[in-house]
């Protein structure tokens, strides 16, 4: 599903448009993902460089499949034409599970801490409700304080700890498992 444009102001006064990226935005989205995976790979599921050679046409196909889906969407943060943040809401597959979706998100470091994460997540929660999604879930590394703060401030409840879930740079790290019933 495509999410309509919503204009917000960050704490630093910057104006940002939140809306679904479309297939024509594939190159912009990849440029953003390359930055986030370079800056914050320890918070991600793949190493730095994961998106460096990702084909633009394949990304455009993925964006089209999100647009066509009934239980998944993306919301990107556009600073003019540049994508500086992205959130994915990945609906689960299976008749008994499709009311449930997983959230993942990331923002370019220079735009963190200005209220963008909260605005993106609150818009995603509102959009998920409108789509009839009943339950959101996510995981966050136990060391990721900005992420933990954001999810708790947006109403997510911690329901468990996934021991040694990630192995990064030679060390195991726990993840916290959060859910929100809409
Ligand atoms: C995690 C992330 C999405 C948070 O987004 P953000 O725009 O920085 O967060 P916001 O500015 O909206 O802040 C949300 C809340 O968390 C708190 N917070 C943000 N950064 C914080 C920090 N470094 N330390 C403590 N609290 C913090 C804020 O106080 C805010 O609460 P408030 O509005 O009531 O004051 C962003 O930092 C990010 O993309 N990081 C890199 C990638 C990543 O970690 N993704 C998530 C993987 S699970």
**Distance N terminus to C terminus?**
18 Å
- Tell me the helix content: 25-40%
| CATH-defined topology | Aminopeptidase
The structure class reads: alpha+beta
Number of strands: 8
Distinct compounds present: coenzyme A
Strand content: 35-45%
Largest sheet: 8 strands, mixed
Order of helices and strands: EEHHEEEHEHEE
Top-tier CATH class: Alpha Beta
Mean pLDDT: 97
Over the alpha carbons, how many angstroms does the gyration radius reach? 16 Å
Assign an overall shape.
Answer: globular
Strand order of the largest sheet: 1-2-3-4-5-6-8-7
Number of helices: 4
CATH architectural arrangement: 3-Layer(aba) Sandwich
Provide the CATH superfamily.
Gcn5-related N-acetyltransferase (GNAT)
What does this structure look like?
The protein has 182 residues and is of the alpha+beta class. The protein has a single domain, classed as Gcn5-related N-acetyltransferase (GNAT) (Aminopeptidase, 3-Layer(aba) Sandwich), CATH 3.40.630. The chain contains four helices and eight strands; from the N terminus they run E-E-H-H-E-E-E-H-E-H-E-E. It has helices at residues 26-39, 56-68, 116-131, 145-153, and strands at 6-9, 15-19, 73-79, 82-91, 100-107, 135-141, 157-168, 171-181. The protein has an eight-stranded mixed sheet, sandwiched between helices. Strand 7 and strand 8 (171-181) form a beta hairpin. The chain is globular. The structure holds coenzyme A. The site of coenzyme A has 20 residues, from strand 5, helix 3 and helix 4.
